[in-house]
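user: Please supply your own:

assistant:
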Amino acid sequence: MPVDGRKRWHDLLKSWGVDPTQADQKFDEIAKAYARPGRYYHTLDHVLAVLETVDSLASHAKNVNAVKLAAWLHDVIYDSKASDNEERSAEYAERLCQELSIPEGQRVAALIRTTKTHEAADADAQVLLDADLSILGASDADYQAYAAKIRQEYAWVPEVEYRKGRRQVLEKFFTRPKIFHLLSHLEKPARRNMAAEISRLADEPRTLILLPETYAVCRLDANAPVPAWATTGSFFSITRTNDELSIVCLQSSVPDGIKCEQDWRFFQLAGPIPFTMVGVLASLVQPLAEARISVFAISTFDTDYLLVKAADLSGATDALRKAGFSLR
């Protein structure tokens, strides 16, 4: 086991006056648990990474030592086929604290239980949960390595079922108003990483079709009749509101003198896309927003369409490919 891990453990338990021999025995027990077969991500390396982030957020915690002990023990019991890992880890923490005469046993256990729902009720829980989820905002390479390790831990789950279940977990986080309480700088990269993985996990590979024509977005008066030129070509979209008649159609069909924005290219998301699928349009828009490319989106019953300026087409294509989309 890493020397740093053992030293960290001893330094923490020293604050409660735990006998070094007892501390050493417990470290070996915990390290053995984290090294059990079937663990690829939820290992001692993950614990040490969480502890490093807890250190960086220590000033926000009211009981930082309790947070650190919870970080050490939050995944000590882990079975990918079980649904009570957090509860059993919390119970283990309470027993350990009782054996070592650490008075914060109940507090540590309560913190561990928050890792099941990732809902923080206080500052200590915010520190722990942000540290536990910080991998979501990692670099693209580190995030993909993390995702691959999670798949290894669920190797017993058939591919179709895994994709569906993993996507549901990610979509739950993706639709939260915010993922992090304190690590706000990780919010954008986390959403970008999750959007890319959600795309990769979709029932069918996420494929974008680049339509060959150039389109215009036109504005007519709200009470204007729909002109015949607006309905030419294989795609057009007409929306009437109290304020305007908005038309998206082939640029070559638009007469002179019409108020319009020109030179738009179309990406069609290969569908159909179920209405129950969450985050689809966000997974398209997010990488383009990160690349500072403006978009115009249209949704239909079956799928989504994304328009970008022709001048931005190359940059948009690169950003979408990096986000996990294939193009044809």
Notes: The domain at 3-201 is CATH 1.10.1300.10 (Catalytic domain of cyclic nucleotide phosphodiesterase 4b2b).
